[in-house]
Amino acid sequence: MSPPGLELDGITFGQGGWTLAADLAVRRGESLALIGASGAGKSTLLSLAAGFERPLSGRILVDGRVVTDLPPASRPITTLFQEHNLFAHLTALDNVALGLHPGLRLTAADRQTAHEALSRVELESMAHRRPGELSGGERQRVALARALVMKRPVLLLDEPFAALGPALRRAMLDLVSRLGRESGLTVVMVTHDPGDARRIADSVAFMDGGRVLLSGPTDSVLDTPELPELVRYLDPDSDQDPS
Questions:
Q1: What 3 state SS string does 61-115 have?
Q2: Neighbour order of strands in the sheet with 65-66
Q3: How far is Cα of residue 182 from the mean position of the Cα atoms in its chain?
Q4: Chain centroid to CA 140: how far?
Q5: pLDDT at residue 236 greater than cutoff 50
Q6: Where does residue 127 fall: left (phi above 0), alpha (psi -120 to 50 degrees), or beta otherwise?
Q7: Which residue has the higher pLDDT, 86 or 237?
Q8: pLDDT range class, residue 241, cuts 50, 70, 90
Q9: DSSP at 131
Q10: Which pairing describes strands 31-35 and 203-208: parallel, antiparallel, or unpaired?
């Protein structure tokens, strides 16, 4: 059996009086949605996987390779944030090409690769526009194209489409799902919306109080919730008492 695309094995983390302890595995080429209330630890878990935070203990593995001690830039992981992190003075094409060479010392083949990535997100006609000339959804598509050219096997989504309207958010999720499957990416997505999870995630992990309390196939977890904390999260008016 092949190793998971992403595995967090015995991870612990602490900040102030708050602690996180989690075990999580995502099959290679599949997508997982992290759901839970604000403060549950979802974004922290992504930061640990990406290397922006360092665990107190445990291991982080990508395709069976331990990456726990690697800096973020050296990990085979790309993260998309709600803030797209594009450079305002660069064109869409050059922003994408930064994923190939941080100094933009590009060969003709590199430029072709960047053009192809923009084409995959349906923005090739806007290659020479700057971020200020693009809509919010278009800027996020440029950021996604940059992630694609980096050719890293794991993609982390920390609510990058939360500020978009419902229709555009659904379109972006569908685009991520299609491109992820075409590229064989392992995708982990933080979301507050179970509908987003149903739309693109093969599996769901529910977090509460810095712990992964439940994980499994999306429909199984969301259609028949038995865990009191999950019931209350999905239906705040529920009278179930998690104690």
A1: EECCEECCCCCHHHCCEEEEECCCCCCCCCCHHHHHHCCCCCCCCCCHHHHHHHH
A2: 65-66, 57-62, 6-15, 18-26, 211-217, 203-208, 31-35, 186-190, 154-158, 77-81
A3: 16
A4: 13
A5: yes
A6: alpha
A7: 86
A8: low
A9: G
A10: parallel
- Any residues with CB less than 8 A from the CB of 197 and at least 6 apart, and which? 33, 35, 189, 191, 204, 218, 222
Residue type, 199: R
Taken in order 198, 157, 96, 150, is the CA torsion positive or negative? negative
- pLDDT tens, position by position, 149-184: 888 899 999 887 887 788 888 888 888 888 888 888
**The tokens 């800027």 sit on which residue?**
139
Structure pTM? 0.87
Long-range contacts of 191-198 (CB under 8 A, 24+ apart): 191/33, 191/34, 191/35, 191/159, 192/35, 192/37, 192/38, 192/159, 192/162, 194/35, 194/222, 194/234, 196/33, 196/169, 197/33, 197/35, 197/222, 198/222
- pLDDT tens digit sequence for 75-114: 999 988 776 678 899 999 999 998 888 787 878 888 888 8
Q: How far is CA 211 from CA 30, 159, 221, in A?
A: 22, 19, 16
What mean pLDDT, rounded, does the chain reach?
88
Residue 239 has pLDDT above 60, yes or no: no
Residue tagged 């979301």 (tokens): 191
